[in-house]
Write a structure and sequence with these properties.
Elements lengths: L8 H23 L8 H19 L1 H7 L2 H26 L21 H25 L9
Length: 149
């Protein structure tokens, strides 16, 4: 019998290979959200699910060693500050919150959306870290089964 935490060797191997492809796809969705359907929320959910895949395949102890949870918490908490900074810069430059102060560039080009691309990146970080950290906190919590008398 396998005494290691997590799932079987096959699941771990598939996870080890596929997690990077899933994270890459999440980045693609975030970075192309202003050109194609997608954006910060959808890409953030995909990245969170990739990290959740590691948690399910390897267990919470391995995931805590593999990922720096404190760094993820710092990314999550600082992302809202970055969002507010972009909004306040818009107020200072254009008079309204989240005013587009970056040049729009050429239509259908990667840098054609002004502030939408940086905001997609910030929202993607916020969503990915928030969702994963909530699941990680629930995995670390020991649910009491009640009094067994």
């Amino acid at each position: 019998m396998n005494k290691e935490p997590g799932m079987t060797l096959i699941v771990k191997t598939v996870t080890r290979i596929s997690v990077w492809l899933i994270i890459l796809y999440g980045f693609y969705i975030i970075f192309h959200g202003h050109l194609t359907p997608g954006g910060g929320f959808g890409g953030g959910v995909i990245i969170a699910l990739a990290l959740l895949n590691v948690l399910l395949a390897y267990g919470k102890d391995f995931t805590r060693k593999w990922l720096n949870i404190k760094l993820l918490e710092n990314f999550e908490s600082s992302s809202i500050t970055l969002f507010l900074i972009v909004g306040i810069i818009g107020m200072a430059v254009g008079g309204s919150f989240l005013f587009n102060f970056i040049d729009k560039g050429t239509l259908f080009n990667m840098l054609s959306s002004g502030t939408i691309l940086p905001l997609n990146i910030i929202i993607g970080i916020k969503v990915a870290m928030s969702l994963f950290l909530v699941v990680m906190a629930l995995a670390a919590y020991n649910f009491d089964k009640g009094d067994e008398q």
